[in-house]
Amino acid sequence: xxxxxxxxxxxxxxxxxxxxxxxxxxxxxxxxxxxxxxxxxxxxxxxxxxxxxxxxxxxxxxxxxxxxxxxxxxxxxxxxxxxxxxxxxxxxxxxxxxxxxxxxxxxxxxxxxxxxxxxxxxxxxxxxxxxxxxxxxxxxxxxxxxxxxxxxxxxxxxxxxxxxxxxxxxxxxxxxxxxxxxxxxxxxxxxxxxxxxxxxxxxxxxxxxxxxxxxxxxxxxxxxxxxxxxxxxxxxxxxxxxxxxx
Length: 246
Fold this sequence. Notes:
alpha+beta, two-stranded antiparallel sheet, 6 helices, elongated
């Protein structure tokens, strides 16, 4: 293909549109790497400057992610975390048609925070979505007969509780923006300081007893949070920075 002769603007927009069409058609799958910039610039017959303008437009549109030293990758589809649900995060995602892989990092009994009762089960899991780690979750669970026999890599926690005769009634949850701490970079393959959401959630049984205390760290570019509002369906409290304890 001959080198570019058209003005920079029309050329890079046409390249961005062509790459976007290929991404939407599945030619470049979510999470996969695009060809190297020099290969793309040669294929389109443009300079690296023009090609990078096109990639910048795709990045601004959220279609690609550029990682220094690694290359350019198609953005994975976003998870939707529904605030008005009492299901587990994995159940929410499976209902939306997403494949979720759970790896149990650690499980042990110990002294939990709050009023779950001592001892409790500490369950540490990593959730993969679209082939990449997206959620790190630590759950403290009140011990009930049969719970320790569950295969938590296969069976969702709330399902295991139901099988043990525990029905959940309500939960309180706080979600806040944060950055990835150094202690978790080995799970996400991302640098410390990457934007994340942190969810702290306590789930209660029908008798008002706390049965699960969760902390989930969710990659900020992997999740969008949705709330379905109804007159009596969901209560939300918005806090300004001055309301958050230091």
